Amino acid sequence: MKKNKTLIYILVVLVGLVLVNAISSKLYGRYDLTKDKRYTLSDATNTIIDNIDSPLIIDVFLEGEFPSEFRLLQTETKQIIEEFQLKTNNIKVNYINPIEDESTREQIIDELTRSGLEPYINTDNSTGKVTQEIIFPWAFASYGDQTVKIPLLKKSITQELSEQINNSVQGLEYAFADAFNKLVNSKSKTIAVLKGNGELADLNLADFLQTTQSYYKIAPFTLDSVATNPQGTLDKLKQYDLIVVAKPTQAFSEEEKLVLDQYTMRGGKSLWLTESVIMDEDSLRNATNSSVSIMRDLNLNDFFFKYGVRVNPSLVKDLFSAPIMLAIGEGSQAQLQPIQWQYAPLASSNQKHPITKNLELVRYDFASPMDTLKNDVNKTILLQSSPKSRLEGVPTGISLNDVTKSPDESLYNSGPQNLAVLLEGEFTSVYDQRVLPFKVKNFKSKSSPTKMVVISDGDVIKNDVRQRRPLELGVDYRGFLYGNKEFLLNTVNYLLDDTGLINIRAKEISVAYLDEDKTKEESSTWQLLNIALPLALLAVFGLAFNFFRKKKYT
């Protein structure tokens, strides 16, 4: 009888195990118990992944033996990819160490660099001997016949490596989701780059246009036809989702303003890079190395005033600024040297907004300050100069010969100045209760919900040109990369994003690091503790076991 009960018990356990395994295989689930929900994908990411209907191959080059900071980035990269793979079987991944094979190392480094994957050179002197490691914090994503590169490391010229890694970890989901979106979803939004009012030439917009073309359809749009067919121009402009106005230099007519106003009233988005002062660095490259700044009247004051922002006719000088290259010395002894240039503010970003979160400094050149005005439109300051700023009115003589003089820091007390503003909401027409310059079909005095960004310097979007070839936007003569391109791309994505993808940038992930100095100081103590304490506990356990055993059996 007892034997039968035992067999029944064993049989019940076996059947129970089979049932538990069968049920668990059907009801598999994962639970994100982290405080910052770092392993929970956003709805926008899930939507993009759901649209992947054929194999998407990811090649990750962040493989090998790395410093602790890069090991963290490596681990987080693998974990986020695992989350993607749990959503679909169509994502395949290859982890590649590009420099593992010594015989092909130089060739592969050269090929990856020519593909646009700039390596990170890590210098380590912690052991007293200087060593350098080449790391490729990049990935490729391939889908069909398309391939895009994915930066895994957000480089910064102002942050320590640990901060760069922290920002990179926070941006991993966005980096991959953004790449997937470019591969999987077709371009549906359209951008019009306005022409006809002395805007920047295409050569000076080349890098911005090339970068943005990965996401949207772009075409030039001239306002010249407004003079002869304003209604027809408006009807054509309404077909675009966003207009970009890059550093206009000629005044807008009332008819052109009405077309732009009614475009906004119908929900059109716009990105304005405009200036209220005539002055740029090229104006100073003359025999006297000097020029005079004067006011630029684009006939847009009432336009922006009605929407809730004002670009003031003055210049921002900032002690926290980018350098300018000048020849110091005379004749054959002259040498090019970087000299701090107060007219080139380095704007800091609003870390609470997805456009500017974890953004590198943005370089301006002869920027004007902006005020926000009270109305029903929501306003968000995106970029500001440093607290060590001052305002300079116009007209004012500006000379490169003064650049070597030490600035009087006591005069730089105007506080941070607004340099980029986001406007969101329902706009009131500039021509509300005014005589219209031409008759508009279905004139609207109140807009649909829409967005607009105003930047008080057209040079923010301007890439340098060397030997008739455009350089990368935001890169200076030293090879430093400012945040201009990322800022503008984020801005365009935010203005046009109806998937919520850009909001992934606002995700907060807390990354904890060991204190390196404290680790070095207390390393011997913790090593001894980790070795001695387990042995001591084992000895105590052994003595206690023998003591109680003898006590019980003697």
UniProtKB/TrEMBL annotation:
DUF7088 domain residues: 35-141
Keywords assigned by UniProt, alphabetized: Membrane, Transmembrane, Transmembrane helix
Domain ABC-type uncharacterised transport system: 189-490
Listed InterPro entries: ABC_transp_unknown (IPR019196), DUF7088 (IPR055396), Motility-assoc_ABC-rel_GldG (IPR019863)
Bilayer-crossing regions: 528-548
Domain of life: Bacteria
Protein name listed in UniProt: Gliding motility-associated ABC transporter substrate-binding protein GldG
Gene from which this protein is expressed: gldG
